[in-house]
Amino acid sequence: MLRLRSALWALVLLWALVLAMAYAPLQGVAWAAERSPARPQRPAFEHVHALAMTADGQTLWLGAHTGLFRSQDGGNSWRAVPLAPNLAHSDLMTVATNPNDPQVAYDATHEAGVCRTRDGGMT
Question: How many domains does the chain have?
Answer without folding.
Answer: 1
